[in-house]
Design goal:
Chain A is an alpha/beta fold and 401 residues long. Chain A contains nine helices and 26 strands. Chain A folds into three domains: 27-107 and 235-246 and 257-301, 3-Layer(bba) Sandwich (FAD/NAD(P)-binding domain); 111-231, 3-Layer(bba) Sandwich (FAD/NAD(P)-binding domain), CATH 3.50.50.60; 320-400, FAD/NAD-linked reductase, C-terminal dimerisation domain (Enolase-like, domain 1, 2-Layer Sandwich), CATH 3.30.390.30. Classes of the chains: A alpha/beta (401), B alpha+beta (107). The complex binds flavin-adenine dinucleotide and FE2/S2 (inorganic) cluster.
Chain lengths: 401, 107
């Protein structure tokens, strides 16, 4: 069975340790949301803009679960796991036995540690998005303040701006999307937002929120009809922790996504795993990671010994900008920009110790896809090669082939 | 609801009702049709929802944007003249009866 109804799919069973036999029993997927498993990315994109409804978000049609022997339990929380008895305990006190257990519990918005946080909305679930839509519905020109300039805050800002509201983004760090992208890419995104009329304030925190007002740490007071926070998430690990599993900013798993209990796995936003790409324990929050880890664990349960090695990748849509990243660009010590930033089409190649670790493609999908292949295949691109005038990734690879 | 026919690489045909304004990709994924992976869920970011439009097709299709055009150079199976990313083809009554062929692999 799997707890958590996000994209990290059901599955589970282990690798080089004593391995329980592949399961023949049913799969039970338990989630505490009302909706059947759905995609979150459109929540800050098409769904928020009103271009699609819940039916357009669900990952599978209801009949799919029946047809594939998957029992879907919605609107129920798993409150405990007894690993000795091999049962999960639901909030309604019912228990579900398991041979293999997968934690796919995701993450939840980090609470805002300031006075007045109760006036602030979050955006993680379809229910959150509905609450925001309701506040914006049928109106234009509202003052909207976004706390946090991460990708969720910026995507949200872009959509709300398109809905013709006045938007201010407040970011405490000196750079937006600091965790996710290079300074070059961040700078261009900020430029784009400003040209659309979004105000972006960096290096300023929020001190307090009051009815209709947001007070910044530098003393500025912003008028706000709606305040939405996107300041990051914390992984849902409490049930795993109570069950005696190792938790340290995520449920800690090995390269096969298994915990110390050979019957228990963790995948997706809630899992902290040994990454070959990062060279240590990391936790990722992306569709790629959730779905690829789900696949790895499903295979492991069925007897595969393949470790999880998939290359991380990510995308973000803001206005007509498609930002796609391949690899992990965090920790780079040198960047080379290819293409023409002034035309809004460029890629930032990120190097660490002269090794390519990731590519940020800003409206250059070819670089993204080629970059994925290069990074997956053990790459030999150096900053010097990329910095040559007229460098073209596709041409360089055709030559190399 | 418009009906779309998905022809697998081995010739097996599946006919599916696709809700108005869903995409050809979603019609396949919602019903668990193997042959379309759609890693990015329709974000025009992954190129794993590649299909070949039936050569006899007469239904009007959405125009191809630059991102789709570029991604199609990197699909796992060869790009042909009738290649499309199925997540970029919205379905309305006008596409009722559309037939798409799925490539041998998407990854
Ligand atoms: C607004 C938004 C936009 C995003 N955009 C992008 C994007 O453009 N590209 C990208 O790659 N990624 C994006 N992401 C990130 C991506 O959606 C997540 O990484 C992904 O959803 C993680 O999947 P998951 O299955 O690990 O967790 P989740 O999707 O969080 O699912 C976990 C589920 O488990 C439930 N749960 C938790 N605890 C329990 C319990 N004890 N019992 C029962 N159920 C429980 C939760 O309520 C939730 O429904 C976005 C996320 C958000 C919120
Ligand atoms: S689903 Fe990813 S490009 Fe179509």
């Amino acid at each position: 069975m799997a707890a958590g109804g996000g994209p990290a799919r059901a599955g589970a069973g282990p690798p080089p340790r004593a391995r329980p036999p592949p399961p023949r029993g049913p799969i039970t997927l338990i989630g505490d949301e009302q909706a059947a498993p759905y995609q979150r990315p459109p929540l800050t994109k098409a769904y928020l803009a009103g271009e699609t409804d819940l039916a357009g978000l669900v990952l599978r049609q209801d009949s799919y679960y029946d047809d594939h022997g998957i029992k879907l339990v919605r609107d129920e929380r798993v409150i405990g796991v007894d690993r000795q008895a091999r049962v999960a305990v639901l909030g309604c006190a019912r228990t579900v036995g398991y041979d293999h257990l997968v934690f796919a519990t995701g993450a939840r918005p980090r609470p805002l540690p300031i006075p007045g946080a109760e006036h602030v909305l979050n955006l993680r679930t379809v229910a959150d998005a509905d609450a925001i839509r309701q506040r914006l519905d049928g109106q234009i020109g509202l003052d909207v303040v976004v706390i946090g300039g991460g990708f969720i805050g910026l995507e949200f800002a872009a959509v709300v701006r398109k809905l013709r509201h006045e938007v201010t983004v407040v970011e405490a760090q000196p750079q937006v999307m600091q965790r996710a992208v290079s300074a070059e890419t961040a700078q261009h995104l900020v430029g784009r937002h400003r040209s659309e009329g979004v105000q972006i304030l960096t290096g300023t925190g929020v001190a307090a929120v009051r009815e209709g007002l947001v007070e910044l740490t530098d003393g500025t007071v912003l008028v706000a009809d709606l305040v939405v926070a996107g300041i990051g998430v914390i992984p849902n690990t409490e049930v795993a922790q109570r069950a005696g599993l190792t938790v340290d900013n995520g449920i800690v798993v090995d390269a096969h996504l298994g915990t110390a209990d050979p019957r228990v796995y963790a995948v997706g936003d809630c899992a902290r795993f040994a990454s070959t790409h990062a060279g240590g324990l990391i936790r990722l929050e992306s569709v790629q990671n959730a779905t690829d880890q789900g696949t790895t664990v499903a295979a492991a349960i069925m007897g595969s010994a393949e470790p999880y090695t998939a290359l991380p990748w990510f995308w973000s849509d803001q206005y007509d900008v498609k930002l796609q990243t391949a690899g992990l660009t965090n920790g780079h010590d040198r960047t080379v920009t290819v293409g023409d930033p002034s035309e809004g089409r460029f890629s930032v190649f990120c190097f660490k110790n002269d090794r390519l670790i990731g590519i940020e493609a800003y409206n250059r999908p070819i670089d993204f896809l080629m970059g994925r292949r290069i990074l997956e295949g053990g790459n030999s691109l150096t900053p010097e090669i990329v910095a040559q005038p007229g460098f073209d990734l596709r041409a360089s690879q055709q030559k190399a082939a | 609801m418009p009906k779309i026919t998905y022809v697998a690489h081995d010739g097996v045909e599946t006919v599916v009702d696709v809700a108005q304004d869903d995409t050809v990709m979603r019609g396949a994924v919602l019903n668990g049709i193997k042959g379309i992976v759609a890693q990015c869920g329709g974000g025009a970011s992954c190129g794993t929802c590649h299909v070949y439009i039936d050569p006899e097709n007469t239904k009007p299709l959405s125009q191809m944007h630059q991102v789709e055009d570029e991604l199609l150079y990197f699909t796992a199976c060869e790009r042909k003249e009738n290649s499309r990313l199925s997540c970029q083809i919205p379905v309305t009554e006008e596409q009722d009866g559309l037939v798409v062929h799925m490539p041998e692999k998407q990854l």
